[in-house]
């Protein structure tokens, strides 16, 4: 009897392996036929060790040094603008070709999705939101959220001015004192984002003490929320680096931080669903994101998930644009002086000037500010690194063959990563000084079409992409561009570390 059982198990195992091998060979044959019918050729090959462990180790070391984006971009001049290689048990394709990115995000949009690990990795914090969903779930979220990001809804300059003034009050008054603006910018964007989303700001700029990430120390629940949100994001970064093995990282501190974040958002969701529980009503006519979407659905989990998804994107991407704009201005005094003269001419010497308040339309009158913003977003785009997974066999239009001009076959399940950080620094697109900060290049007609993607592109383009521009205008006009304040700005390498962390989690 025992011998019969063993024989059966061996036969079943052999049959299973035979079926798997047959299926593999059949799929491989079908893939070859598909690739040949589309004239596909293989892209450049990234050298890889067994299972791609060496490439993963190099990526991890670069992340610890704070230069993971430069590490990734350094591969393209060597292996081509589209390459393929093994990284941690999987195969990855990287590209900085505008036509390929256009195919992924627009012309072949339905051939790609975010991939299963994106949703499962981010679910503990973000749940089922616009940045974690694909297909019908994403389409439903997008349709519900799009009306909430009209120009009228995100252009409450008066509310922004209050938070900017609070930021100004935190700057040193004495000559020679240095201000680290980065934590203040994190507080500014957190305060303005929570007021827009929840109807009440967490007022982190009013805290007597701020830590280096912008979260305030203190006993108030709102301050604990800010700290917990930072902790949760830090763990999402670590999980993202492990790719398919993200689930290994799930410590109690991560779970506790998620619970704190959810608890506060749930409180505001409950008030949106039951307005009578509010201690004070919002001013007449004031727009509150959570109230607006609560009018469309009464599902508390849906409301919490969407709010957290928008908060994640809105806080850090906007703080990044603010930080890098003034970081670059501090390093390029001639650009700062030219911009200051234009702003003084357009708006005068501060906020609340009648007829000269900042607005989206003001960008038409401050051309050089628009150039400065474009140049900042070129060097440090809001989504520097992103990727999609093929849901069916498809092709990328360029990257194959020795000249890189032939199509590239992308089998079902293949991950394709694209980096706007690398795309925006291509010398053949932006000149030999592509790594330099030179706003004047935008007078030369650069950045056409899919060569410039500061907020992604296609159907998943960032809904709130206008808000960061407006906030930068308000901050700039709020007398931040004065000689004394400019000298007080301290460029900080930690800004680049924060940016690379954001690159790994704020994909859309």
UniProtKB/TrEMBL annotation:
<dbReference type="GO" id="GO:0005506">
    <property type="term" value="F:iron ion binding"/>
</dbReference>
<dbReference type="InterPro" id="IPR036396">
    <property type="entry name" value="Cyt_P450_sf"/>
</dbReference>
<dbReference type="InterPro" id="IPR001128">
    <property type="entry name" value="Cyt_P450"/>
</dbReference>
<keyword id="KW-0479">Metal-binding</keyword>
<keyword id="KW-0560">Oxidoreductase</keyword>
<dbReference type="InterPro" id="IPR017972">
    <property type="entry name" value="Cyt_P450_CS"/>
</dbReference>
<dbReference type="Pfam" id="PF00067">
    <property type="entry name" value="p450"/>
</dbReference>
<dbReference type="InterPro" id="IPR002974">
    <property type="entry name" value="Cyt_P450_E_CYP52_ascomycetes"/>
</dbReference>
<dbReference type="GO" id="GO:0020037">
    <property type="term" value="F:heme binding"/>
</dbReference>
<comment type="similarity">
    <text>Belongs to the cytochrome P450 family.</text>
</comment>
<protein>
    <submittedName>
        <fullName>Cytochrome P450</fullName>
    </submittedName>
</protein>
<dbReference type="GO" id="GO:0016712">
    <property type="term" value="F:oxidoreductase activity, acting on paired donors, with incorporation or reduction of molecular oxygen, reduced flavin or flavoprotein as one donor, and incorporation of one atom of oxygen"/>
</dbReference>
<keyword id="KW-0408">Iron</keyword>
<feature type="binding site" description="axial binding residue">
    <location>
        <position position="462"/>
    </location>
    <ligand>
        <name>heme</name>
    </ligand>
</feature>
<dbReference type="InterPro" id="IPR002402">
    <property type="entry name" value="Cyt_P450_E_grp-II"/>
</dbReference>
<keyword id="KW-0349">Heme</keyword>
<keyword id="KW-0503">Monooxygenase</keyword>
<dbReference type="InterPro" id="IPR047146">
    <property type="entry name" value="Cyt_P450_E_CYP52_fungi"/>
</dbReference>
């Amino acid at each position: 009897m025992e011998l019969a059982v063993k024989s059966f198990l061996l036969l079943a195992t052999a049959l299973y392996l035979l079926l798997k091998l047959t299926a593999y060979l059949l799929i491989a044959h079908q893939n070859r036929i598909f690739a040949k019918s589309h004239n596909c050729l293989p892209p450049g090959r990234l050298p890889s060790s067994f299972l791609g462990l060496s490439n993963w180790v190099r990526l991890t070391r670069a992340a610890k040094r704070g230069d993971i984006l430069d590490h990734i971009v350094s591969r393209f001049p060597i292996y081509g603008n589209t390459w393929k290689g093994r990284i941690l048990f999987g195969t990855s394709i990287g590209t900085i070709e505008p036509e390929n990115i256009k195919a992924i995000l627009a012309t072949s949009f339905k051939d790609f999705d975010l991939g299963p690990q994106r949703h499962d990795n981010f679910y503990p914090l973000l749940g089922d939101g616009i940045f974690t969903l694909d297909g019908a779930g994403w389409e439903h979220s997008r349709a519900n959220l799009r009306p909430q990001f009209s120009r009228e809804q995100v252009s409450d300059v008066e509310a922004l001015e209050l938070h900017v003034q609070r930021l100004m009050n935190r700057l040193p008054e004495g000559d020679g004192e240095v201000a680290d603006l980065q934590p203040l910018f994190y507080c500014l964007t957190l305060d303005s984002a929570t007021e827009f989303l929840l109807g009440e700001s967490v007022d982190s700029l009013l805290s007597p003490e701020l830590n280096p990430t912008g979260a305030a120390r203190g006993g108030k629940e709102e301050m604990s929320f800010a700290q917990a949100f930072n902790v949760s994001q830090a763990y999402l970064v670590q999980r993202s680096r492990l790719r398919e093995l993200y689930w290994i990282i799930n410590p109690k501190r991560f779970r506790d931080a998620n619970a704190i974040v959810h608890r506060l958002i749930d409180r505001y969701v409950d008030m949106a669903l039951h307005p009578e529980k509010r201690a004070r009503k919002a001013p007449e006519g004031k727009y509150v994101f959570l109230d607006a979407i609560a009018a469309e659905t009464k599902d508390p989990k849906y409301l919490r998930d969407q709010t957290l998804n928008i908060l994640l994107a809105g806080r850090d991407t906007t703080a990044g644009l603010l930080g890098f704009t003034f970081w670059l201005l501090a390093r390029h005094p001639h650009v700062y002086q030219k911009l200051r003269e234009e702003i003084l001419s357009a708006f005068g010497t501060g906020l609340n000037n009648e007829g000269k308040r900042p607005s989206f339309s003001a960008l038409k009158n401050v051309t050089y500010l628009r150039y400065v913003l474009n140049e900042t977003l070129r060097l440090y785009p809001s989504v520097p690194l992103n990727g999609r997974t093929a849901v069916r066999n498809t092709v990328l239009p360029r990257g194959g063959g020795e000249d890189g001009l032939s199509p590239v076959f992308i089998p079902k399940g293949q991950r394709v990563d694209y980096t706007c950080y690398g795309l925006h620094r291509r010398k053949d697109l932006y000149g030999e000084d592509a790594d330099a900060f030179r706003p004047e290049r935008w007078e030369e007609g650069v950045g056409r079409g899919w060569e410039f993607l500061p907020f992604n592109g296609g159907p998943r383009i960032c809904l709130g992409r206008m808000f960061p521009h407006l906030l930068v205008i308000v901050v700039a006009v709020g007398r931040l561009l004065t000689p004394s304040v400019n000298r007080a700005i301290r460029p900080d390498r930690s800004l680049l570390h924060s940016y690379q962390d954001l690159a790994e989690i704020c994909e859309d």
